Amino acid sequence: MDKWLMNNNAAKVIALVLGILLFAVVHKDDSTAVTTPPLMESRWIDSVQVRTIGLDTQQQVIKSMKPETVRIQVRGKRTTIAAALPEDYKVTLDLTGYGTGRHVVPLHHEFPQGIELVSMLPSSVTVDLEDVQTKEFEVRVKTEGIAAAGYKAGTPIVSPSNRVHVTLPASRMAEVKSVTAMVNIGKANESVMLKRVKLTAYNSKGQEIQDAVMTPSVVEVEIPITKPFKSVPLQVNLTGQLPDGLAVSTLTPDVNQITLYGPQEALDQFEFFDGVQVDLRQIKAEGVYKLNVRLTPPSNIEKIEPSEITVDLQISSVKQRVISGVPIILTGENDRLETTVAEPATRKMDVTVVGAPSLVDELKAGDIQLIANVNDLPPGKHTVNLQVNLPRFVRRADNIPLTVTIIIQDHSTPVTTEPDTKPTPPTGGDAGNSEGSQSETGQEEHKPAVQEDAGTSTETNDTSPDLNSENDQSS
């Protein structure tokens, strides 16, 4: 027995048996069950964004899509699901081939390898597609801030073009009221140039339209910053006299307006610029002349552009002509008085004019004004000088004043009770009686007759070439 116990193998067997018995005694009352973790599991993932593919955004846009997110249940190895990120779960809406209108489209999914879809809620979405529209707008440049003292912002220059194309759903295109580029010119004393200025579309309330697509989206803007300036029409004046027998036929400057630079209060005084003088004394014969004229800035004006102009002047021989039947116009009439033209009774006159043949030949009675100013004249008989207004470069053949005889009568003057008989002449000569009688009996009918005479005179002048020809020859 002792020999067996001293055997090494026997001792090992006994130790093993004792170990097993000891383990059984220690864990005899342990109620915790030891289980092996499972290899697969499933999980619900909420608010997975639906992504769209296959949509030609140049032709269509999504007007509405419901729902925009879905809930999915996936299954896979525990370690695989734990390692997957939310963005790894892709749910897509393929809109390839779908046209304008409302459609119910099934959803597709793409998950990491080893993860499969158990369920998707919902499995399809309702999408409403709408055509897009592109419209051209003008770019408006708005400035922020104020240029340096004494400087003024000029007209903005937009490159490569001041036109931009705006793309929006057709139903929203009417919202666009302007496309604007904002430029800050605060305290600038030289031109402001920006290479990339963002364009923004605004609605009628001045609110930005966020999803408007603009082509191009940025432009280059230059804003000139200069001293205050003003562009005004140019008027060329003639000085001196041409030799006898010559007249100005045409006068044409190479520019029609000039630009003045200076303080704003000085510029505000100019509505036109008449500081250009052409001296006719340097002309000796008929022909076409090109005259260079330097422009001198007026007082308080720093600069004038251009500083020199060219005037084309055509000189020709004069022609004399009698213009028949020019109507006489009354101005300054008093509503409480009756004013009539006693002499000439036709209320028309002939006017002899001279000028270049190209101007005189085209002249009509309606191109000449004979104005009698009766303002502040008391009742009675008056001789009034006529103001003669002629087209430019045409003048009267003589300087003898043209006069008319005017009769002014108070409306309160009693008239005859028998309008069909000749009224009793007032005290005065026969001529005065006759004139007074005409004004009394023709008070209401005389003024319309004047308008008719004026129109008839113009027509007669145009349709009576023989008379005009005789006048020309007699002249």
From TrEMBL:
Annotated protein name in UniProt: YbbR domain-containing protein
Species assigned in the record: Paenibacillus profundus
Domain of life: Bacteria
InterPro entries the record matches: c-di-AMP_regulator (IPR053154), YbbR (IPR012505)
CDD domains: YbbR
Residue numbers spanned by region Disordered: 411-475
Compositional bias ranges of the Polar residues kind: 454-475
Pfam families referenced in this protein's UniProt entry, alphabetically: YbbR
